[in-house]
Each structure stands twice: as C-alpha cells, then as structure tokens.
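debug: dumping io for the single-chain case to check the tokenizer round-trip. Nothing else runs in this session.
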Amino acid sequence: MQHRDQIQALENWLDSQIIGQQKLVNRLLIALLSDGHLLVEGAPGLAKTKAIKTLAQGIEGTFHRIQFTPDLLPTDITGTEIYRAQESTFEFQQGPIFHNLILADEINRAPAKVQSALLEAMAERQVSFGRQTFELPPMFMVMATQNPIEQEGTYPLPEAQLDRFLMQVNIDYPDGASERSILQLVRNESRSQSTGNLPSPPTVTQESIFAARQEILSLHMAPIVEDYIVQLTLATRNPEAYGEDLANWLDYGASPRGTIALDLCARANAYLQGKDFVSPDDVQNVVHDVFRHRIIVSFEAEATGIDPDTVIDTLVQRVAAA
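debug: decoded output
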C-alpha cells in the first residue's frame, strides 16, 4: 500500500482547506479512487465548488466548471465542429468535458438533452460527434451539484440517469466552531494572496491514483462481508422479507450497479482509514450515499415523512451484518 500515504496526506490537506465538510472531502476521494462520479446536494455557499477546485490543485490533472442553465446546448459541453476556411475542412473543437475533473454546477437547471449528453459521457467515457468518437481522459470524474432550495424552473434527473452516479451526498451547514475557523481561514488566505505566500498543496500524480485504485481492489474482503453487501441490495428489492412497513415504503430497489458501487466505496473507505481489509462498518459507512438515489420510496411513505435515509436506516438495522 505504498501510495496510501500520499492519498491520506491529500485528504488531510483538503480537510484543512475545506472546513466543516469532512464528509464531502471523504466522498470526493472515495469517488476518485473508485473511478466514479458524485452527485452533491446542498444549499448555496457550502463549499461544493471550492471542494472539487481544491482537489484539482492537489492532483496532477485539469479542472473545468460548467454552469448549467436552461439555454445550455449539448455541444456547449461536448464540443462542436469548426470550419477551417484555409483547408476547407471541418475540425472538431473539444468542449469542456475533455478535462480530468468536471464540476457540473446545478445540473438540474439544464434541459434533458444537456443532462443526457453529460451522463452519456460519464457512462461511456467518450464523446461521439457525427461518425467520429473521441475518448475522454483516463482519469475522469464529474461532480454534479443540485440546489435543494430553488426547484422552480428545474429539470429533475430521471431515476435511470441518477443510477449513473456512484454516490449522492447530502451536505448541511457547518457548526459554530467550524464557522469561526472558516472566517480565520478566509482572512489568512487574503493575507497570503496579498503577500504571494500561498501554501503549496501536496501533488498526487495520476499514476499514483491509478496505482491506489489497484491497491484498493487487492484489499481483503471476507466472503461474509461480500454476502452482507449482496443481502443489503436484495433487501431493497424484496423488502417484504424484512417487514411489512418496508414493503409499503419501497416501490423499487437498487440495481446491480448499487451492489458494485457499495463494494467499491466500502473498499475505498477502508483504504482511506489505513485498513488492509474491509469490514461491515465500512459498508455501513457508505451505504446511505450509495443507495440514497437508487431506491424509490412509495408515495404513501413520502406522504408520512419517510425518506430514503429512513428506509436505509431500517435496512441496516434489520439485515444481519453477521
């Protein structure tokens, strides 16, 4: 596990720069190490943009932010052809999607065609234009954000497209102590910018990230833990086996992508904690973010205040970790 120290040093540095959002930092690194994408929901001003922008400073890669708006076109993301008069030919001009880290800001503000263009690139890791296909970078991660406050004029993501995200993370306001630390950090950053003494972040190369992904896959997972992951997924599809209330709460369960994502995220969580094996605690630590957007709660359950997190809490209590 020779690359783990570099990843943990990066996490510690990110925690010092993104105060009060340790969970978001942790989930960003889990998504990066699992080669997946992240959907983040939270009110404005909670350091969502700052988090991924700061992550980009700590790794060897390029970053681009795309602000989603109702008038955005798919070619604004993927790119388009430009006519070269000198050669009388058309040349494909790559769009902002051709970067290592992408921030899709307020993804639910863009219409379905734009969302589909982004999600297709996320799933296929390529962009097709006419008869040509263009590969995206080997290290490629999208963090999409949603604003839960303003829902007027938005285009909610369909459930089938939500499944493309490795995790959905809901973040909240920091506590009072963190708020004071944020004030001090901003003041110190302003002073450092004026004097030109900005701290240098640790730089993790892409080769180190690829190597860390292989180390994660080599972590020991006992068959009983693997069975626990499978049973959690099956419980979302056959909730009647775990109680009549669960059967009434759930309309649809998690897909096989949920099982795969739970395995990868539990491994990455154990890796970041310095462990050489995966335990049920690692599975329980990430199961809410992996299943939250993959299960569909019934209308009757929503009417009584039951949300996906409540359903997952109940599943964790009733499915034996063994």
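debug: round-trip ok. The chain has a mean pLDDT of 91.
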